Amino acid sequence: MSATTAVRIQLRSSLAGRVGRPVVTVQASPDATTRDIRAVVAETYPDAAGVVESALLVAGDRILGAEEQPLANASPPPTLTLIPPVSGG
């Protein structure tokens, strides 16, 4: 069994509304990719899954690519932010 890390995820806008709170904690492998972390959040909160898949995952002020490993060099406890797409004009 591989070790996991507790990851704090800040949810913005409609994601916070779908989940019912602005911050959640999920367990992920230290070598998890951005794609893996999104999948864990979507599985844990299925009502938000559609939005999670298209949301940006951000570490600090940097948008993460799908195959990046944001936990590999993060200081504990790692905190990431999910920002759903917005529309308007």
In DSSP terms (H or I, runs of 4 or more residues), the helix count works out at 3
Q: Quote the beta fraction.
A: 25-35%
Specify the helix fraction band: 25-40%
CATH topology: Ubiquitin-like (UB roll)
User: Given this structure, which CATH class is correct?
Assistant: Alpha Beta
H/E series? EHEHHEEE
CATH superfamily: Beta-grasp domain
Mean pLDDT over all positions: 90
Tell me the count of domains. 1
Descriptive notes:
This protein has one domain (5-69): Roll (Ubiquitin-like (UB roll)). Helix content is 27%, strand content 27%. It contains three helices and five strands, in the order βαβααβββ. A hairpin with a 2-residue loop joins strand 3 and strand 4 (62-63). The mean pLDDT is 90.
Topology:
Blueprint: E1 5-11, H1 13-19, E2 23-28, H2 34-44, H3 49-54, E3 56-59, E4 62-63, E5 79-83
Task: Give short descriptive properties of this protein.
89 residues, alpha+beta, Ubiquitin-like (UB roll), five-stranded mixed beta sheet, 3 helices, 27% strand, globular
Q: What does this entry show, briefly?
A:
By secondary structure, this protein is an alpha+beta fold.
